[in-house]
Amino acid sequence: MGYNEGVPADFGLTNIPSAVHNVGTQNDTYFVATGENVDLKPQKLIDELMNSGEKCNLDEVIVVTKTTDGTLLWLEQGNSKTGLTHIQDRHLEDFASQGVDDIPQLINEILKTEPIKKGQNQKGLYADYALNGNTYRLSYGTNGYIVSFYPID
Q1: 95 vs 144: CA distance, rounded Å
Q2: Do 137 and 127 touch, CB atoms closer than 8 A?
Q3: 5, 55, 60, 81: which could join 77 in a potential S-S bond, CB 3.0 to 4.6 Å?
Q4: CB neighbours of 151 closer than 8 A, spacing ≥ 6?
Q5: Rounded to whole angstroms, how far apart are CA atoms 131 and 113?
């Protein structure tokens, strides 16, 4: 299966090698949107995260970004309970059914939009986002660490 097979044309992914930005370990490759030079770990935000006093594993950070209200959030590789590993283990099929093959890029894109709902439940803080006809929930800690991300519709 090709990198973009099943991805809607307006999603903006491409197989063009110059559009590939490796932000994972040597075995992971994440693809970025065409027409923009998307850096999922801008040095300015990495520096802000390092100076924030929050515990993080910089070697495992995949995405670091700010929400529209200026909150610093980051995604690490994580484990079976949190982070990208958790997201892939629990929700990869849900994303694939929507044609999403680049979860870190989608998180980065989603966080540039206003949430449609924010709240807190027994598992912690969350924000719901709508993009391209789909609704997603992003769960995160008070420190900004992204715990989970998944489609809710």
Answers
A1: 23
A2: yes
A3: 60
A4: 91, 94, 95, 98, 134, 135, 136
A5: 8
**What percent of the chain has a predicted confidence (pLDDT) above 90?**
71
Q: Is the pTM of this model over 0.70?
A: yes
* Residues 107 and 138: beta-carbon distance below 8 Å: yes
What are the residue ranges of helices labelled H in the chain?
Answer: 43-50, 83-97, 103-110
pLDDT digits (tens, 9 = 90+) for 75-111: 999 999 999 999 999 999 999 999 999 999 999 999 9
Q: What is the pLDDT of residues 26-39, one digit of tens each?
A: 333 333 333 344 68
CA distance 97 to 100: 7
| Maximum separation of any 2 CA atoms in the chain, in Å | 43
* C-alpha separations of 143 from 19, 55, 75, 125, 152 in Å: 32, 8, 12, 10, 24
Beta-strand ranges (E) seen in the chain are 20-21, 30-31, 61-66, 72-76, 117-121, 124-131, 134-140, 146-151
